[in-house]
Structure formats: structure tokens, C-alpha cells
Amino acid sequence: MDDIVKQALAKWPNVPSCTGWLMLDRRGNWRMRDEAAQASGSPGMPIRHEALLGFINRNYECDERGQWFFQNGPQRVYVELGYTPWVVRLLVEADGTLALKDHAGNDFEPAAVFADDEGGILFADTAAPPRVAVLHDHDLELFADHAALADDAMNGEFRWKDGVTLPLQPVRRADIASRFGFVQSPSANA
Fold this sequence. Notes:
Elements lengths: L2 H9 L6 E7 L5 E3 L2 H6 L4 E2 L3 H9 L1 E3 L5 E5 L2 E7 L4 E7 L5 E5 L7 E7 L4 E5 L6 E4 L4 H6 L1 E3 L6 E4 L5 E7 L4 H5 L10
Parallel strand pairs: 1-6, 7-11, 9-14
Antiparallel strand pairs: 1-2, 2-3, 4-5, 5-6, 7-8, 9-10, 10-11, 12-13, 13-14
Pfam families: DUF2944 (PF11161)
InterPro entries: DUF2944
Protein name: DUF2946 family protein
């Protein structure tokens, strides 16, 4: 968390939280959701300002109930999740090895890989507790190039790097939030 945010929290500790105004979509884009977007169920307008994106990413955390939020100075802004709290991109490094980067640009070291019943690929990392991230849909072909999939496309294995192979585990999309302990649509008062 940024020092300026910590200072604001100390100066104004009782600023009410808000919900519904910020979304992390299925592709890792931060989106502002005004009242009209919230009322219509629209994902809202993508945020493109690089400094603001960096500020959001540095101050993105989870509360004790599994609700993700952006600490905007003294105000906690709870985040609507398009799927998981993290979105990763799969890429090939200059040396030919694979890498995963989360939507904030940080390395993501997978410990497990899952295929959901809607065709999504998810990774759980080595953190404790593990973070779960959905793979950006633009990277599904690259994933398939490094996977051996069964006919059901929910089983098989993923050839990671340094000779590490991760078994592909089937999972229902509806079970992901409870399995990994996060809330997709948070409530500041829950």
C-alpha cells in the first residue's frame, strides 16, 4: 500500500466504503461503473490512465471476508469481479520459456491449473493462501500449444517450464469463488 494512502487512512479513519463503482473484468481491465452502468448491469468504461492504473494495482487488497478492494486514500472501494480477483497473461520470454504475468504486471508462479466447465483456464499460484487467476482468453491458443488435453478438454496436463508438468484439473465455474475464498460481488456492509 502506498504511503500516501496509509497517511490518509490515519488522518480520516472513518470514511464510508463504497461498492459497485469499480470492476475488474474478465480480461484484467479496470472499469469505472457510474450509476447508469450499475443500473443496467454494464461493465462500465475502461480506465486507460496509466498512473491511475498503477495506483489501483498497488493498492488492491482483500479483506477478511474475501472481498477485494482498492484503497483509494481513506476510502475503501470494493471491486466487482468479472470472474477471479486476478487475470493472467501467458507469454513466451525472449529465451523461449513460458511466463505468467498478472494484470498488475507481476510474475505469477503457478502451482496448479484448472479447466472450468465453460472453457476457461485458471491458475492457482504458490502464495499462501493461493491466489487464483483466470487466463486471458487471448492466450488460450498458446496454452493449448503447451498442453496435452483429453477429449473433454477439462483433463490433461500443462507443460510449464523447467520440465514441470501441472495436471489439468476439472472445476465448475460456479465453485471457483467458494473454493478459493473470494466474493465476486462484494457488499461493504456484509
